[in-house]
């Protein structure tokens, strides 16, 4: 039968098992089996390739699952490649702290997510607005007014009208799916040209608004100040590099054209260490049920359930008061028991004579055991003879007390307490 006690025990065991499994899950690497859009991802939309390319070129490429902080060395670059929008909206404080870090000489490269753009890397096929909404991420980093727009530049794709199929992240190879190549100027002051492959369609470009900027990667076919797909925004002693399309770093097209060269130059132009942020990809919360408590609705529901459980336990619990007096049952020791039995026997008419008979029999049994007789109660003369061979004086005392007890028991007179006590002492001295 299910009782309140067994129910509470069952709930406690379930919570212990759940917490144990959660801890074991946290101890493992949160790689999501390589299907995520992060540096663990090996599918078309993942960034595992760019991490390995950076490390292969001798650059210190690191993953960081913990939230980014201003305590990192200013000589490194923090890469925010397509961070999840709902994480950015929910936890903007960590990004705001990085603004002061950049002013001190830090460097951030950010590629805002483009989930609303219908490319082969997304499943949404509806027509969207020409303006890509990324003010939350860029505004948090202090780039108010900076936005992303479709460039509207003709590409080298022959079929512009046919809708490109989306890129299934599991079944299709990374080499499948249409892409467009664009000739771009790398850092216009240097005059170097790079061929960049991007998902088909009009490429995304950066609109700086009123912010001071320096174009890094610009489409050759665009007018001056337009068609910029990567730009640097100076901030104090550091800079924030904005890349319009995060698919530039994706596994599917990283090996095409000069994408790997552009990716490495954007991430680490001077060969400094690069930290790929995975907190805003959800890796710090993936598989962690305790992270659900940071969601207001879930936290409110959890608090309500805990409060209801506490109220129910309080109402059904036994109220504790002053201790109830419980009388202790008397426990007698052996001496009290013997004394009580003696008093009971002495109250009888023939009590002392009974004690004397029991004493005589007990003396014979004890001496018989000491002398090695096989019978339980040997005859007095046999005991006296055997005892005389060992200790004559003791044998004489034994024979004397046995004769006196027998004579006294043969008389019908009442035995006094003094006489009975003397006989008991004499019998005890023979043992």
**N-to-C terminal Cα separation, in Å?**
64 Å
Strand order of the largest sheet: 1-12-2-3-11-10-9-6-7
If helices are DSSP runs of H or I spanning 4 or more residues, what is the number of helices? 13
Which H/E pattern describes the elements?
HHEEHHEEHEEEEEEEHHEHHHHHH
Shape: rod-shaped
Largest sheet: 9 strands, mixed
Overall pLDDT:
79
Q: Pick out the low-confidence regions.
A: 116-133, 152-176
Q: Indicate the structural class.
A: alpha/beta
How many structural domains can be distinguished in the coordinates? 2
Fraction of helical residues: 25-40%
- Based on CA atoms alone, the radius of gyration comes out at 49 Å
Strand tally is 12
**Percentage beta strand:** 5-15%
Region (Disordered): 149-180
Protein name: DUF4350 domain-containing protein
Domain DUF4350: 43-267
Organism: Botrimarina mediterranea
Structure characteristics:
rod-shaped, transmembrane helix, transmembrane, 15% strand, alpha/beta, 13 helices, 431 residues, DUF4350, DUF4350 domain-containing protein, membrane
């Amino acid at each position: 039968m299910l009782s309140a006690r067994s129910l509470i025990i069952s709930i406690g065991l379930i919570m212990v098992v759940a917490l144990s499994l959660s801890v074991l899950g946290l101890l493992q690497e949160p790689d999501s089996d390589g299907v995520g859009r992060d540096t663990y991802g090996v599918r078309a939309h993942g960034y595992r390739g760019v991490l390995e390319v950076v490390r292969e070129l001798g650059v210190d490429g690191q993953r960081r699952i913990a939230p980014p902080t201003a305590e990192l060395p200013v000589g490194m670059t923090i890469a925010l490649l397509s961070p999840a929008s709902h994480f950015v909206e929910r936890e903007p404080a960590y990004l705001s702290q990085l603004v002061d870090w950049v002013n001190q000489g830090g460097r951030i490269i950010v590629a805002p997510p483009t989930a609303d753009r219908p490319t082969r890397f997304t499943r949404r096929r509806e027509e969207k607005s020409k303006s890509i909404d990324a003010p939350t991420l860029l505004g948090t980093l202090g780039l108010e007014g900076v936005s992303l727009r479709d460039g509207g530049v003709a590409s080298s794709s022959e079929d512009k009208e046919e809708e490109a199929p989306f890129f299934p992240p599991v079944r299709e190879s990374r080499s499948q799916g249409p892409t467009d190549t664009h000739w771009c100027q790398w850092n216009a002051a240097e005059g170097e040209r790079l061929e960049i492959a991007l998902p088909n369609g009009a490429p995304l470009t950066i609109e700086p608004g009123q912010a001071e900027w320096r174009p890094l990667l610009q489409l050759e076919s665009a007018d001056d100040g337009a068609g910029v797909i990567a730009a640097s925004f100076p901030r104090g002693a550091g800079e924030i590099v904005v890349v319009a399309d995060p698919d530039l770093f994706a596994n599917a097209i990283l090996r095409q054209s000069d994408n790997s060269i552009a990716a490495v130059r954007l991430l680490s132009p001077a060969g400094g260490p690069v930290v790929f942020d995975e907190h805003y990809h959800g890796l710090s919360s993936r598989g962690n049920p305790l992270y659900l408590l940071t969601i207001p609705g879930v936290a409110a529901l959890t608090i309500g359930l805990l409060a209801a459980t506490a109220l129910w336990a309080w109402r059904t619990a036994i109220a504790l008061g002053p201790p109830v007096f419980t009388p202790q049952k008397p426990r007698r020791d052996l001496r009290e028991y013997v004394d009580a039995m003696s008093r009971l026997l002495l109250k009888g008419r023939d009590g002392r004579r009974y004690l004397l008979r029991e004493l005589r029999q007990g003396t014979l049994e004890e001496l018989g055991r000491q002398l090695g007789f096989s019978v339980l109660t040997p005859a007095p003369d046999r005991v006296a003879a055997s005892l005389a061979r060992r200790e004559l004086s003791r044998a004489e005392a034994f024979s004397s007390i046995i004769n006196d007890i027998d004579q006294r028991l043969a008389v019908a007179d009442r035995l006094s307490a003094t006489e009975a006590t003397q006989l008991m002492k004499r019998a005890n001295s023979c043992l």
